[in-house]
Inverse folding.
């Protein structure tokens, strides 16, 4: 087992709200999310939440007790909720939350779990890469933001409609027909995207936060096969460096995005 990891905060002076870690036979990546200025709901913050949840997941995975990944995630969400449920309003929509990506070797197969919009790339021994993600949050975001399509940014009408779009998106969080994310309710884990592949079919596996996946979309600096080539050549840190270059070059343009935390885990030498 060989796992190389890299993570980078989106902006200097702010904590990195991603988490990545590995134990023998498993890798975990979380991408934290929350609402700025939400300290009244939770005094701990998003980085605290992702590190607590990520640490709990690694602890359970290290036991190798054969439980399925959704059950492990549900347990960990419940544990972290118990750590700050008495001091924070964890049910508030703005309280800390996180996407989750996990992979684990179980005998002769690789199991995976994805909750919200992180990415899994399977480097297949035969054929191109297989890309897996949970598209429900992206779908809900596009649907809720559709009323903004023909409005001019910076106008009072745009700001009013945008506020209603944000409210509409929050109302779909951890709801049937909406999208699911790790937050305060362990039942969200049961809605995760899961699957498995025979280890003999794979050369390696990649986990990316959506801040790192920008290298493929929207910036188009490479495609998924090219990402695997870049990882082989430069490792995860090289991928993130390319993301930062793309963000800097797009700054001020119509396709500019605010710099985001970016994290990559690249697992090769899978057991056979």
């Amino acid at each position: 087992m060989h796992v190389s990891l890299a993570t980078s905060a989106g902006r200097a002076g702010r904590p990195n709200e991603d988490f990545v870690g590995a134990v023998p036979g498993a890798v975990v990546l979380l991408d934290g999310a929350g609402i700025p200025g939400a300290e009244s709901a939770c005094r701990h913050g998003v980085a605290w939440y992702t590190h607590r949840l990520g640490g709990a997941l690694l602890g359970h995975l290290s036991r190798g007790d054969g439980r399925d990944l959704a059950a492990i995630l549900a347990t960990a969400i419940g544990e972290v909720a118990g750590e700050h449920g008495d001091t924070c309003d964890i049910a508030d929509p703005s309280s800390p939350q996180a996407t989750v990506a996990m992979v684990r070797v179980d005998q002769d197969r690789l199991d995976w779990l994805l909750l919200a919009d992180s990415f899994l790339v399977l480097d297949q021994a035969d054929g191109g890469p297989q890309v897996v993600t949970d598209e429900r949050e992206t779908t809900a975001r596009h649907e809720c933001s559709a009323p903004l399509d023909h409005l001019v940014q910076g106008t009072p009408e745009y700001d009013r409609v945008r506020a209603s779009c944000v409210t509409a998106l929050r109302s779909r969080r951890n709801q049937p027909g909406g999208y699911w994310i790790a937050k305060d309710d362990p039942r969200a884990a049961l809605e995760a995207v899961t699957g498995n592949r025979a280890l003999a079919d794979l050369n390696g596996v990649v986990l990316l936060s959506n801040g790192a996946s920008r290298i493929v979309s929207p910036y188009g600096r490479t495609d998924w096969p090219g990402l695997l080539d870049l990882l082989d050549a430069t490792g995860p840190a090289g991928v993130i460096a390319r993301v930062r270059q793309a963000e800097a070059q797009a700054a001020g343009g119509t396709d500019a995005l605010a710099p985001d935390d970016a994290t990559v885990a690249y697992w090769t030498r899978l057991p056979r």
About this structure: The chain has a mean pLDDT of 93. The helical segments are 46-61, 69-84, 136-145, 156-171, 210-213, 224-250.
